[in-house]
Amino acid sequence: MRIAEVETRPFRDQKPGTAGLRKKVRVFQQPHYLENFAQAIFECLDDVTGRTLIVGGDGRYHNDVAIQTLIRMAAAHGIGRIVVGQGGLLSTPAASHLIRLRGAIGGFVLTASHNPAGPGGDFGVKFNVASGGQASEQLTNAIFERTTRLSRYRIARLPPLDLSRRREVDLGGCILEVIDPIADYAALMQSLFDFEAIRALLRSPFHMRFDAMHGVTGPYARRILVDMLDAPPQALLRSEPLADFGGGHPDPNLRYADDLVRSCFAPQAPDFAAASDGDGDRNMILGRGLFVSPGDSLAALARLADCTPGYRRGLAGVARSMPTSRAVDLVAQRLGIPRFETPTGWRFFCNLLEAGRITLCGEESFGTSSDHTREKDGLWAVLFWLNVLAVRGIGVAELMREHWRTMGRHYYRRHDYEDLDEDLARELLEALRARLPRLRGERFGALQVTAAEDFEYHDPVDGSTSAHQGLRIVFGDEARIVVRLSGTGTGAATLRLYLERYEGDSAELEGDVDAKLAGLSRVAERITGVRRRTGRDQPSLVT
Ligand code: G16
Hints:
Elements: E1 2-7, E2 21-24, H1 25-28, H2 33-44, E3 52-57, H3 63-76, E4 81-89, H4 92-101, E5 106-110, E6 122-129, H5 137-147, E7 152-157, E8 167-170, E9 175-179, H6 183-192, H7 195-203, E10 208-211, H8 217-228, E11 236-237, H9 258-264, E12 272-276, E13 283-287, E14 290-292, H10 294-303, E15 318-321, H11 327-335, E16 339-342, H12 347-354, E17 360-363, E18 367-370, H13 378-392, H14 396-407, E19 409-420, H15 422-439, E20 443-444, E21 447-448, E22 451-454, E23 457-458, E24 465-466, E25 471-475, E26 479-485, E27 493-503, H16 513-528, H17 530-534, E28 541-542
Helix pairs in contact: 2-3, 2-5, 7-13, 10-11
This protein binds 1,6-di-O-phosphono-alpha-D-glucopyranose.
1,6-di-O-phosphono-alpha-D-glucopyranose binds next to loops.
């Protein structure tokens, strides 16, 4: 193998965010840009010689080019085996699983998640470590620091490699293994869920729809839901992965999966519907006439986990991100298990998962998962739901009503104010932060502020502290307002305002969520002044 040392210039914009390095495609297309980032990663890892590395992505535009580069650089750095999904595809949860299964040193996951793709869209690279989870903050900082002062990178001179068929090829001291990206993941799912029961459900007059949004989960859904579980092929929508996601925005929420959502409120509504995002780690769950908010989904799955073979033994604990609704807290209390509240960002769950402190975890941003992998997992959530529905023999709406009757209901909405001027968004947050100490004890109608703080997390596993993780104004168990800035955009700022109100009286369980939250929304405006300060009369996205 011929190895070249190529001169590069340092880049100063390669600080990974909550989910890796995400930039516009054209940024990644600059000469040496990806190479610089990858070189920094290889230099920050312990000895990689002879180790295994996983590489794959969600199939978006520029994936193919980036994968060839990463393979050549991995080979040049002495990696012994590079495992790549056929066609370069690997869903994020499948990649994480594969890293663990193969005892790999880590893996490159090429995705910008739910962000749009194509020449004008976004691209991203995430490095997951040997545990399968995202690199720690410490490693991420070290990588970033290295990217700013590199002058050379190492790359193997190799012809373009064919990744379209499964095979093993010796690149000259480094084996390239192109694998079936689905098989190991499907086997993992089979070990967790009752496939017999789900198959019986899907063969019965049970109408389901799964929208892959032209992301990576299409082939996974076809193999697992159709081939293994006998769902009719027409149950799958937008199941062919496309480099530009069909021009869509592969984010499974009320706006971007609106056709699916509308179909659930139409006369011929399916019994169960779900969608997943570009890289397959997010999920949205719907029933006939009902959208299950992610916090409710996590709570219901935690409460009914004993319906599934994989979680029948009980849960060690549960975790949710701070802005996620507190519905799961009540379930944890009832089950007598610990509950953790972490900052936004999956890596905070990973520490707890690694330490065996939690089994299930989830976030308001349509992410749910468990200790089976170290990423959130869209199809896993779909199978979990199907398993529960098959065992309980009732519909999604009935199941959620039963849940609310037992536990009470957390009405919940996230209001996004997108495309804001970054300075304006920061100033707004600063002004609110300064106001927090004076809010405690203040009354807003029937609500009284019991806590107002800038969330700070003390990791119980590694003892680290993460400050400034979102502003929260708490009104006892009754309500909460949370404000934070998104950490995943590649353009202007997005401000997220989260509203949550608890209703314990079962007579009050039905009702329009927005109407239920209208009063709290007015209180939020009085406290935060988001609309006034941004000049927007409404959020640009409500989920
Ligand atoms: C990423 C992280 C999630 C996090 C989300 C938050 O998701 O992996 O843990 O909840 O970002 O996004 P924001 O900061 O915009 O609210 P993904 O699916 O984009 O990888």
